[in-house]
Write a structure and sequence with these properties.
Elements lengths: L3 H13 L2 H8 L3 H15 L4 E4 L2 E4 L1 H27 L5 E8 H18 L3 E8 L10 E5 L8 E6 L3 E5 L1 H7 E2 L11 E4 L8 E6 L2 E6 L4 E3 L2 H9 L4 E5 H10 L3 E2 L11 E5 L7 H13 L30 E2 L5
Helix pairs in contact: 1-2, 1-4, 2-3, 5-9
Length: about 325
């Protein structure tokens, strides 16, 4: 006999790619997840997945179960929501996706508080560098340009991109007076989502000035770039949310502040309001409250982050002249 918990468990297995990854999502040890999978296979009488050192591959029977399980789990959650609504209670399972850095700093603390306030909700927070999440989700906290026009987006907070460098780097390499001067500097470039991140597009007075830079250092981790910049190894383009505190404290300096770069606003992507679960709406309300005003923006303008304030309340109900640089 297959239970609803079996369906939910195998749905996690199917989208994780390995028993170890599934175990991390489930909050159990890999051996416990493997034993549970083996027990499920024994009960249904067929092998559901082949496991080896490269990961996990679903068999035909496993794919059948995964395909059938996903809508059934959704139906069960919807039924739970409907019953909870009769009791004026928020419950069920919520899957939130966010980018690695922003998710760690801003979404994870809110997820923990949300769970404290709504103990009937189980919450799965997936942090990823992918442009499009690999698995189904209820709410995706997205940074940057929206390209999936089929998704419903709700703007959570403004977020500009800045060119920044450490004072020590600028003292040594000089301060560029215009984007063209960047060819004499050491760009630090973030490699992500197969995007063309070495083409920096500046705008001033309605005129775009695009510069192709040759990375002195590159990484797929924004925190690594920030560390390099703080160490005086070059200049980088980063989101305002990530470096505003450093600029305010003088650890980093904005370069070419009279120019603007394409913004990277923070947006919640989710399904239409019709059919949206109470738990999803409640988490969206919490995000809107926590990010308005944007924590990285101060009352005195761009470049200042506001002083720590009281934690946002949870909703009670879901309702040049430049010298040759280090190239």
């Amino acid at each position: 006999m297959i239970t609803s918990e079996d369906l939910r468990f195998f749905s996690v297995i199917a989208r994780s790619g390995s028993v170890a990854a599934a175990a991390r999502r489930l909050g159990v040890t890999p051996s416990a997840a493997g034993q549970r999978l083996a027990a499920l296979e024994q009960r249904v009488g067929v092998r559901l997945a082949d496991r080896d050192r490269r990961g996990l591959r679903l068999t035909d029977e496993g794919r059948l179960l995964a395909d059938r399980a996903a809508p059934l789990v959704t139906e069960i959650d919807d039924l739970s929501d409907a019953l909870a609504a009769r009791r004026e209670e928020v419950g069920g399972h919520l899957h939130v996706v966010a980018s690695l850095g922003f998710g760690r700093r801003h979404v994870a603390p809110l997820a923990a508080r949300f769970r404290e306030h709504y103990p009937a909700v189980t919450l799965d927070l997936t942090l990823t560098a992918a442009r499009v999440p690999a698995a189904a989700y209820d709410l995706w906290v997205h940074i940057g340009e929206l390209r999936e026009t089929s998704l419903v987006g709700r703007r959570l907070a403004p977020n500009d991109r800045w060119l920044v460098a450490a004072p020590a780097y600028l003292a040594d390499a000089g301060t560029p007076a215009a984007p063209v001067d960047l060819v004499d500097h050491a760009p630090l470039v973030l490699r992500e989502n197969e995007e063309d991140t070495s083409l920096w597009r500046f705008t001033r007075d309605g005129r775009e000035d695009a510069v192709r830079v040759t990375p002195a250092l590159a990484s797929n981790d924004g925190e690594v770039l920030r560390t390099w910049a703080l160490d005086g190894l070059g200049m980088m383009v980063r989101s305002e949310w990530h470096v505003a505190d450093d600029v305010r404290a003088g650890r980093l300096v904005r370069v070419l502040p009279e120019y603007t770069l394409p913004p990277a606003d923070v947006t919640a992507l989710l399904g239409s309001r019709r059919g949206r679960s109470a738990r999803t709406q409640a988490f969206l309300d919490l995000l809107l409250d926590a990010l308005d005003p944007a924590p990285w923006r101060g009352s005195e303008g761009v470049g200042n982050s506001k002083e720590p304030s009281a934690r946002p309340a949870l909703p009670e109900a879901p309702t040049s002249s430049c010298r040759r640089g280090r190239a």
